[in-house]
Amino acid sequence: MYLVTEKKEECSGCTACKNICPTNAIEMIEDEEGFKYPHINKEKCINCKACEKICPNIKKDEKNDIKSVYGVKHKNDKERVTSRSGAAFVALSDYILKCKGVVYGAELGKDFSVFHNRAETKEQRDKFKGSKYIQSDMKDVIQNIKEDLKNNRKVLFTGTPCQVAGVEIVIPEKYKENLYTCDLICHGVPSKKIFFEFLKYIEKSTGEKIKEFNFRDKKFGWEPHYETFKFEDGQELTTQYFRNLFYGHNILRPACHKCNYANTHRPADITIADFWGVDKVAPEFMDEKGVSLVIINNEKGKEIFENVKSDFDIINVTKEDCIKYTYTLNNPTPRPDTREKFWEDYKKKDFSEIIEKYAK
Ligand SMILES: Cc1cc2nc3c(=O)[nH]c(=O)nc-3n(C[C@H](O)[C@H](O)[C@H](O)COP(=O)(O)OP(=O)(O)OC[C@H]3O[C@@H](n4cnc5c(N)ncnc54)[C@H](O)[C@@H]3O)c2cc1C
Ligand code: SF4
Ligand code: SF4
User: Where in the sequence is the domain holding 200, given as residue range(s)?
Assistant: First the structure.
């Protein structure tokens, strides 16, 4: 594990070690690629090794497996056009909010940072809608989740599988009755540092200040992938530069290429994804407003789905079709041969040259 070997591919940045440390000796510090890793303050450390034992990267929990799979579309089209796929997340989180519970998810801040936050209202929850294609900072949400559970609130945590694994491993069993987890099918998280360089590049090349950014604007439909900007003077811009950097895979966190969760043993109770195979499996269900794939992994997943399914139009999907069309249930994203060269170039060249070489 990373705290012993310092091998970056062994740390997904889930913050489990930081949260288990009894002396607060662990701080998450950003590296030169913009990803956070745990660092131990030797003066505070009492050498209990709790952090080494808890790491989900070594402590694999394979108790969940795919139980059933559905293709779903939220019946409210307004929810779908403002979500990434079929608005599965909205229905799940609506149910938790209706039960006076708390929802945790990834938000895009006014400064364009992406971080996990806590929501008790629909307005707060709506900030979690849509995919943000950089790693979300977990901040101190695991401690907040623990507090909410101690106070007998229902909690829904949503995030990447590695983040869910961190939450599931840190929360003591005695508080878990009210904890529901939902992971995404995830093929990797890009670097925040490159994202901020990209925003700077756009402001410099346009001479405009960015007011709003959308990682994948649904106004182009569900399948196309265009990012959009709104500037302070009211002008708009559409590009595919960040999309191309993302799919080039040079800017993913190193651990994503050795991902522990690119298989059917899901850390969460329920998994949501884009249902990319829908046009082949059930062409009549295909819809450019978006279709979600929902995978039930255990009894809790089944329980929450039973409570929300009246919000959806639903079709049954076989486990075989689900695995066939969901690439990251089979393998992690391969590490590209160009990764070292990309970061070498990034250190030496102006960002406009990076855009020319890797994003066009
Ligand atoms: C980095 C990333 C890679 C993905 N890769 C794939 C893929 O390869 N194949 C696939 O089928 N689906 C992928 N998805 C998931 C997919 O895009 C949708 O999140 C999913 O289909 C749910 O859509 P929805 O309409 O139900 O809800 P949405 O409105 O999209 O709900 C958003 C949910 O995503 C969470 N979220 C958003 N951004 C982040 C982030 N940066 N970190 C953690 N959680 C986040 C929110 O907390 C919320 O729970 C990816 C998502 C992300 C963030
Ligand atoms: S060994 Fe114990 S005290 Fe030291 S950093 Fe790890 S959890 Fe904290
Ligand atoms: S690909 Fe794996 S390691 Fe990377 S963010 Fe997704 S779940 Fe975490």
Answer: 192-244+341-359
| Ligand 2 pocket, residue 46 CB under 6 Å | yes
Do 173 and 263 lie in a common domain? yes
Cβ count within 10 A of residue 44 = 13
- 139 conformational bin, left if phi > 0, alpha if psi -120 to 50, beta if neither: left
Q: Is 13 in the pocket of ligand 3 (CB under 6 A)?
A: no
Distance in Å, CA 179 to ligand 3 centroid: 21
- Structure confidence at residue 61 as a pLDDT band (50, 70, 90): low
Is residue 295 one of the residues assigned to a domain?
A: yes
8 Å CB contact between 1 and 57:
yes
Task: Give me the pLDDT at residue 23, please.
Answer: 98
pLDDT number for residue 327: 86
CB of 27 shorter than 6 A to ligand 2: no
Among candidate residues 21, 81, 76, 65, the one with its CA nearest the CA of residue 47: 21
Residues contacting 124, CB < 8 A, separation 6+: 117, 118
- Which pLDDT does position 60 carry in this prediction? 65
β-pairing verdict for 155-159 and 179-184: parallel
DSSP three-state, residue 158: strand
Residues in the chain, overall count: 360
Work out how many domains the chain is built from and give that number: 3
For residue 334, is it within any domain?
A: no
| C-alpha 131 – ligand 1 centre gap (Å) | 5
Say whether pTM exceeds 0.85. Answer: yes
Backbone angles phi, psi at 40, to 5 degrees: -95, 130
